[in-house]
Write a structure and sequence with these properties.
single chain, 32% helix, alpha/beta
Amino acid sequence: MTDSSGPDGRSAQEEGLIGRMVGGMIRRSLRKSFHTIWWNPPPEGLRGPIVWACSHHAWHDGYLMFEAVSRLGIRTLDWIAEFDSFPLFRHVGGLPFPPGDSARRAATVRSTIRLMREERRSLILFADGTLRRPHEPWEFGSAVGLIRRQVPGVRFVPVGIRLEISRHERPEAFLAFGEPLDDPEDLRGRVEDLLRPESGEFQVLLRGTPDVNERWDMRRIPGR
């Protein structure tokens, strides 16, 4: 079976009317929260099944990865710890992964492996599945080895997600994608390399909200 992406990557990730509504909510939040979202995308022609192995140090990481995989047109799943607070995320690839509920987590893992094998879906895998401050220790869990064993042909793409606030009123986000890997050994080290400011040449993924002086510069008023 071929990759399930349609000609419009956004519609492939957003399932039905509810999916489009949730996708619109996510993009409004991104535009409101950031000045610019930058990325250096993975190689063209990449198709699932892929594990996007991501750092996880900021609240918006899931939203940022949603926009990236939508742009790539690669239909992707995402394990969400707080899924029950907003189950409509199911319509944009979200699956429940609640802490302390081993039965539901196991069911999600089984569903994920089935969809990756049968429909060539991909998976956003955040380190530890836990949001951590940048200075705190983190690791990728056992899911990496399990998926490698259970999903033939799966590839691992390290992703470093970094926020920077300095030049603008709102932060800028930088998504650095590494080369696809068949062997996930030293996946954490690859991600840490991508978190460095000099980790690639970036292009615009999404424009957000300009600074107040960019929106309201009174020097532009005619005759002033």
